[in-house]
Amino acid sequence: LYVLITSCEPLRIYLFNDGLTRLCTTQYVKPTNENMSERCMHLTNYAINKHSENFVPNEFAEEQDAGSKRSLAWFMEWFAERHGDGRAALLWQRMGFLCTKMLLPILPTLQREYGEVFEKKKKQKNVAKENEKGSHHHHPTTMTDDEAADGSHCFEILGVDVMVDEALKPWLIEVNTLPSFATDSPLDDAVK
């Protein structure tokens, strides 16, 4: 999942309606002592599965139902066809809730750090403005102090890895603060 944070006070996040779905390259079988070492059966990690003899690369971005890596839009459509639109909507809602819940514990830290950075910039701007008043050359500023203090001045994109169980519960696997935007297939180009 790709999550865009445009504001941390108030929290404003957007969940991109597409992303990447990674599939194991070996048919899944419930873990046992005998198959536990089958990494391509139990892990969907692209870096592991791309070296499997069963890996199918994406030849064309338009081929939504082929390849070991597919789009999230394909997955949601596939899921809706098999389980109904209502269950697909419920899964999407749960993934959105997961992303929100993931951010809530770190929100105070984000707000504090954001405030410190932009409060410092506001003070620097005020000092520069005062210095300008003392000189004979006046350079008009493009933004008032109130405008500089309000609003959003930056954004962040997070890559959120999720696994969905049979009960439609999404499980947080990891959060990437610097998700890869490298592209090695037409699908990557289309999504990223």
What is the topology?
Layout: E1 2-8, E2 11-15, E3 20-22, H1 39-42, H2 46-49, E4 69-71, H3 72-83, H4 85-103, H5 107-134, H6 145-149, E5 156-164, E6 170-176, H7 186-191
Antiparallel strand pairs: 1-2, 1-5, 3-4, 5-6
Helix pairs in contact: 3-4
Summarize the structure.
This protein is an alpha+beta fold. It has helices at 39-42, 46-49, 72-83, 85-103, 107-134, 145-149, 186-191; strands at residues 2-8, 11-15, 20-22, 69-71, 156-164, 170-176. It has a 4-stranded antiparallel β-sheet. It has a two-stranded antiparallel sheet with strand order 3-4.
Rough outline: elongated
- Profile the largest sheet: 4 strands, antiparallel
Number of strand elements: 6
- Report Rg: 23 Å
N-to-C SSE string, H for helix and E for strand: EEEHHEHHHHEEH
* Strand residue content: 15-25%
What integer is the average pLDDT?
A: 84
Helix content: 40-55%
Number of helices: 7
Explain this structure:
It is a single chain. The protein is an alpha+beta fold and 192 residues long. It contains seven helices and six strands, in the order E-E-E-H-H-E-H-H-H-H-E-E-H. It has helices at residues 39-42, 46-49, 72-83, 85-103, 107-134, 145-149, 186-191; strands at 2-8, 11-15, 20-22, 69-71, 156-164, 170-176. Strands 2-1-5-6 form a four-stranded antiparallel beta sheet. A hairpin with a 2-residue loop joins strand 1 (2-8) and strand 2. The radius of gyration is 23 Å and the shape is elongated. The N and C termini lie close together (11 Å).
